[in-house]
Structure formats: C-alpha cells, structure tokens
Design brief:
With 300 residues, chain A is mainly α. Chain A is built from 13 helices and no strands.
Chain lengths: 300, 333
C-alpha cells in the first residue's frame, strides 16, 4: 500500500473530471450545450418580449382626442404616455429591459436543467456496472456523490456564463448598481443553487435502476419549479396561492438575488443577505441529505 | 497471514425480504489458487461476488478476505482486491489509457506511479497500440482486456472475475484463459471466478464449487468431481444377442455393467486401459464387437449427478423464468 494516499478525498477530482470530460471532449455535444441557451434566450426572450407591449409605439393618442389639445400640450402628453411603459416595466421587473429580467431567469433555468440531467447519470452508472466497480474500490461513498454534484455544478456555472455573454448582444442591460465584482456574487448564487439541486436529483435517483422513473419525476418537477418562481414574472404580481409556492422555491431567491446584483438600479443589502442565506441553507441541507442517503443506499 | 485467502461462513443474501439469492454458503479459497463458482444463470454467482467485493451487504453470515473481515474492515478489503466485472464498465468516451488512470485514482495511487503501471498493464494485455483510442472503438475482446488491466491497477492479491469470457469468441476466450493462468503463475495471485461454461471451469480452475439455487452443492477439483462419479463409461455392442454381463464383470478395473437398449454400459476407473481388455476378452469367447465408445465424465455429468438436471436444462428453465418475469413486468404497465 505504498504510493497510496490515505486522504478521504482521493478520487474526487478523478470522478468529477470523468463527467466533465464526457462533456467537453465530445465536440458535438459540447457545441449543442452551448447552442441550447442561445436558443432559449433568442427564441423565448424575443417571443415573450413584454417590453414591446408597453413600448412608446403601442400607445398613440387618437386623432379626435389629439385635436382638443394645443401642439405644446400634445407633446407633453405624448412624452408622458411614452414613459408610462418604461415606468410600468421598472416597477414590475426592476429594469426597463424585459430581456434582461428574463436572461437572469434563464440562467437559473439552465442550472435547473443541467443538474436534472446530471442527476440521471447515477442511473446510467448503475445500469452499466460502473457504479459497482467504483463501489468495490476504496473511494469514500460520499466522494461518489459529491463528484456528481460538483460536475453538475461546474457545468451549470459554465452554461450560465455563456448565457450572460450572449445576452449582451440580444439587449441585456446591466443595472446602475452593477460592478464587475458582482459577477462573483452571481457565481456564488449559482454554486449554491446547483449544489442543492443536483443533490436533490441525485437523491431522487440513487436507488433507481430504470431510466424511466427519474424521467417521470423530472418532468413532474420541472414545470412547477420553473413557473412557480420569478423566472418570467415577478412573484408579487401572481395570485396569492401561487405566491406562497413561489416564495418557498429556492430558484426565486436565486433569481431575485442575481437580479439585484446584475440588473437592478440599487441593491437592498438586507434582502441580498436573506437571499444568500436561504439558498445557502437549501444547498447545505440537500447536500447533507444526499451524502447521508449515499451512505445508506449505495450499498444495498 | 491466515490460512485461506477467502473464507465464507453462512454467507446469505435475501433481496426484498423474500428472494433468497444466496443461501448460507460456506467455502474457503486457498492462497494462489483459481477457484471457480460454476452454475447456471441466476444461481447466485454474481450476488456472491458482489458481497465479497463489498458492493452488497450480506443479509447474514460472515466472510473474510486475506483475514480482513468483510463487514468491519471493508476498506482494507477494497485495497487488496481487484475486480473484473461481467459488464464492460470502461467509459466509452475516454481512451483506454485514461480509463486505467481513472481506476488508479480511485485507489489514490499517485500519478507518477499510475502512469508507469498503466503502461505496463497495457503492454501486458497487448493494448499499447490502442491506448490513445477511445474505448468505443474497441472490440469486445479488447474491452475485456481493458477491464482486466483496470482490475490489476492496484496490484491486488485477490482478483475477482465475474464471467470473464461471457460473450467472447473461441479464440479470445482461449487468450483470456492464458492471461488468467499467467496471473496465477507469475504473480501468485488468488483468483475467484464465476462461470457457467463447464469447459472453462474444467480447463482453468484448481477447485470448483457447483452452485445452484443459491446453495453450494459440491466442492472439489474438477478431477475429484469427475472421479466421484465412479469413472469412465465404455459402451459396447456385440453382434449376437447373448448376455455378456457375466463375462465383462470379471474383467479387471470393471466396476459395473448395465444393459441398455441392446448395448452394455460399462463403468470403469481407467477406460483407456479397460477398453482393449474388454475387446480381447470378448473375442476370446467368440463374440464380435460391433461398436465401442469411451466417454470420459465431464462436469456436465457431475452437474447432472448432483442437481438431477443437465446444465443446459437449468439454463433454459432459468431463461424461461426470466422471459416470464419480463412478460409480467410488461403487463403491469
């Protein structure tokens, strides 16, 4: 047993990198994962462009009404009406650019999707016998789970960065409170939410030997998690019962926190602290659950 | 060092509270021997291996490997064993070399050491030329060899092989047998393997345990098992319809005669020597031998003797059971 490290963490990077390699060493898959967020943002962001609904061109003063005003009064009125849209957007979404609002939602949405799919790889590893092989080696059981969580987290963070970059030419505008340092804060949010979500999905899949079961569960969870959150619409404009659901959804806290850092004109630091705390506790609790389950259920 | 490399006592695995896969088995494997678990599909071979390699927890019973208790010292067990699983577990998207290094990392072997070992192992299994090719381009035989190399990365003292030649063609199977023999000879390794190929157990194993329905039925060297049947069978037919039983019984080495369908089944310890004696004795008495055949007992006869059915029948009923289960599972949806 010479030349053997006695660290409890050995194998962690090897197993994490195995998952990452499957992704970045396959050029086609890698390109597809890059294209996916572009499609999301390009299609959905433009199809759902709420900003255009309340833009200056969508409201004109009818000719018979306009005739009752002097040209001077009319120009005041016109500028008033054309600003209504902007102020509605500002008060609803915290920014005048809906695509900026939604891009942040997309970032969290991508995190959700990526972690979901990585959660399924546990099932594949079991079916293909790889899991049994790893279980027969002296790798810590927790390392097996943490490596899955870590690779999903790194992948999601990468994809989220891509979204941020491609959102700029699509019309993404940073808020007045933005500084380059805030990017680090966004990564912190992403890291926490991805840890929590991938632990959740791995815990769901850990005993499964069939790929169909997790697929069904994912489909069931995916839409409610997305739409009962602030991904596309602010929570305070939702009906009461939906607000209750959206208010416990950790994705909402992640998105609201990231929006403060990226697109809002000012940052409410006590809100930000609460958002970090909520997502942080979510990550800590679920990662712990994931590790505890791995101890119990990896060895049947 | 303890006397036995592997020792199991009352080892039992029950799935879902009712399905008894392995039923209180006792066996021991000596250092440096090739020990085979022979039995039809579904007999409990893989379940036994999975318990011994610490992947499944036994429901009952104890086992130790190199003196390390399976339950209490599972980490020590894991450091000292190697596993060559039934499935192809190597990652298809990685190269053969990367796969071996990944296995090395799972044992915490430093990169400097593992690179050297990986090169040596690739040479050993004759994959050096393909080491930088992705595993998805490998043939079945190459993938088997890669699994073998991965299983050897931590220089195990005990190597577990689950159906090492399943689905391989005749040539690749013979090559695999040579690798297994070499591991025993060159490295003094203890090998525990499962198989449902009778000829494989016969050709390769120092000792064989026949397992059926989760129970070990008999253990011994292939020769012992075959000898336990009482020797070779010589079948003789003569031209005239006269009873020659009395005549044959007097010949040296003959242990029993049975008339069946007009020919005589003669049991004898040493068939090659006895057969000429039989012909000679019969000719002296004026009988004409029209047909003679000599059958050496194979493990199939052993299996038949101890389980009451031939290995092939057992496989078929196992397959039928499997098909039935699949059908039921489909109906449920």
């Amino acid at each position: 047993m010479n030349n053997v490290s006695k660290s409890k963490l050995h194998g962690l990077w090897a197993l994490t990198n195995r998952e990452l390699k499957k992704w970045y060493k396959a050029p086609v898959v890698f390109a597809l994962t890059l294209i996916q967020p572009i499609i999301w943002l390009g299609l959905l962001g433009n199809a759902l462009n709420l900003g255009s609904l309340v833009g200056s061109s969508s409201f004109t003063i009818p000719a018979d009404v306009a005739a009752q005003f002097t040209p001077q009064q009319l120009s005041v009125l016109n500028s008033y009406f054309s600003n209504i849209g902007g102020s509605i957007l500002q008060s609803t979404f915290g920014t005048t650019s809906y695509i900026s609002f939604m891009a942040v939602g997309m970032i969290a949405f991508t995190a959700l999707f990526t972690t979901m799919f990585s959660g399924m790889s546990v099932v594949w590893d079991r079916r293909l016998g790889f899991l049994n092989k790893v279980l027969s080696t002296p790798v810590s059981r927790a390392v097996i789970i943490v490596s899955k969580v870590l690779s999903a987290t790194l992948r999601s963070m990468f994809q989220a960065s891509i979204i941020l970059v491609i959102a700029v030419p699509l019309g993404f505008e940073v808020g007045a409170a933005f500084t380059p340092l805030n990017i680090l804060g966004v990564f912190a949010f992403l890291f926490l939410i991805c840890m929590g979500l991938s632990s959740l999905f791995i815990a769901i899949n850990i005993r499964s030997t069939r790929i169909e079961t997790p697929m069904a569960v994912m489909n069931l969870l995916n839409l409610p998690l997305t739409f009962a959150s602030s991904a596309f619409f602010p929570i305070d404009r939702m009906p009461g019962w939906l607000q209750t659901v959206a208010n416990v959804n950790p994705l909402s806290y992640t998105m609201n926190g990231m929006r403060q850092l990226l697109i809002n004109s000012s940052i409410n630091y006590s809100d930000l602290a609460l958002q970090y705390a909520y997502v942080g506790i979510f990550a800590a609790v679920l990662t712990t659950i994931g590790i505890v389950l791995s101890w119990r259920f990896l060895n049947k | 060092m303890s006397e036995d490399a592997i020792k199991a006592k009352g080892l039992t695995k029950v799935f879902n509270g009712s399905l008894v896969a392995v039923d209180h088995i006792d066996f021991s494997v000596k250092h440096g021997e090739i020990f085979g678990f022979l039995g039809p599909n579904g007999a409990g071979k893989t379940t036994t291996i999975n318990m011994l390699i610490t992947v499944l927890k036994p429901t009952e019973g104890k086992a130790s490997i190199l003196g390390y208790d399976l339950a209490k010292q599972n980490n020590e067990v894991r450091y000292s064993i190697g596993v060559v699983p039934q499935e192809y577990t190597a990652d298809e998207d990685l190269t053969g070399y990367e796969n071996i290094l990944l296995c090395a990392d799972l044992y915490g072997i430093s990169r400097k050491v593992s690179q050297k070992r990986a090169e040596d192992l690739l040479k050993l299994v004759e994959l050096t030329a393909f080491k930088d090719k992705k595993v998805q381009t490998y043939s079945g035989g190459m993938r088997r060899r890669l699994e073998l190399a991965c299983g050897l990365i931590n220089r195990p003292k005990v190597l577990f092989l689950d159906e090492p030649t399943l689905g391989l063609d005749v040539q690749t199977r013979a090559a695999t047998w040579n690798y297994i023999r070499m591991l025993k000879k060159e490295f003094g390794m203890t090998l525990f393997m499962t198989t449902h190929y009778l000829e494989e157990a016969d050709a390769l194993c120092d000792r064989v345990a026949i397992i059926d329905h989760g129970k070990i039925i008999v253990v011994g060297t292939p020769d012992e098992l075959k000898d336990s049947l009482g020797g070779d069978i010589i079948t003789v037919a003569v031209k005239k319809d006269v009873d020659i039983t009395g005549l044959v019984e007097k010949i040296e080495h003959v242990k029993g005669v049975k008339k069946e369908n007009g020919s005589y089944m003669i049991k004898s310890e040493n068939g090659e020597v006895t057969a000429p004696l039989i012909i000679e004795a019969l000719r002296k008495e004026g009988h004409v031998v029209t047909r003679l055949s000599l059958t050496k007992p194979t493990l199939n006869e052993v299996y038949l003797q101890y389980t009451g059915r031939s290995m092939r029948d057992a496989e078929e009923s196992g397959d039928a059971l499997h098909a039935k289960r699949m059908l039921m599972a489909r109906r449920r949806h």
